[in-house]
Amino acid sequence: MIDSIKLGPLGDGTNIGDALALAVGRLVQSQAKNKVILLLTDGVSNVGALTPLQAAEMAQENKIKIYTVGIGGDKDARIPMGQPIFGVQRYQQIPGGSVDAKGLEEISKMTGGKSFMASDNSALGSVLGEINKLER
Predict the structure, then answer these.
(1) Is the pTM of this model over 0.90?
(2) CA-CA distance, 34 to 111, in Å (whole number)?
(3) Residue among 72, 70, 69, 42 nearest 128 (CA)
């Protein structure tokens, strides 16, 4: 399946809702007994047609668990704002930091999954190990 992914320009923003809905759509067609989505994100959902909670409702209705992993979590994170003016890019601070921990918690709780934060490679390895134990 990974070979079928087509990469291209994605634009600015983090589209968690549409990404989850796409994953739900794929899993609905799966013959697997246990259906699980692992959402890894370093951002706050700020673009897309569906909100992350709308997509989580779709997962819940189809008995699909979502495990969320927020990566990073810089409290002083900033995103580019508009086009550069005279070659200078302007930035704005992301309210609440670079990861929407509360939103990720809601998504996982709604679907029977669990939410995690991973601030570095070691923490991510531990989180993935724990998820592996939960979903044998």
Answers:
(1) no
(2) 13
(3) 69
**Closest Cα to residue 39, out of 121, 118, 93?**
118
Instruction: For CA atoms 42, 47, 49, 54, give the dihedral sign.
Output: positive
Tokens representing 13 are 């923003």
Distance between CA atoms of residues 119 and 31, nearest Å:
34
Looking at the chain, how many residues does it have?
A: 136
In eight-state DSSP terms, residue 94 is P
Quote the CA–CA distance of 46 and 79 in Å, as a whole number.
11
Residue 39 CB neighbours (<10 A) = 21
E strand intervals along the chain: 36-41, 65-71, 78-85, 88-93, 115-118
Query: Confidence class of residue 78 from pLDDT cuts 50, 70 and 90?
Result: low
Is residue 26 pLDDT above 90, yes or no? yes
pLDDT band of residue 18 (cuts 50, 70, 90) is: very high
**Distances from the Cα of 60 to the Cα of 28, 45, 119, 128, angstroms:** 11, 19, 28, 22
Backbone φ and ψ for 56, nearest 5 degrees, come out as -65, -35
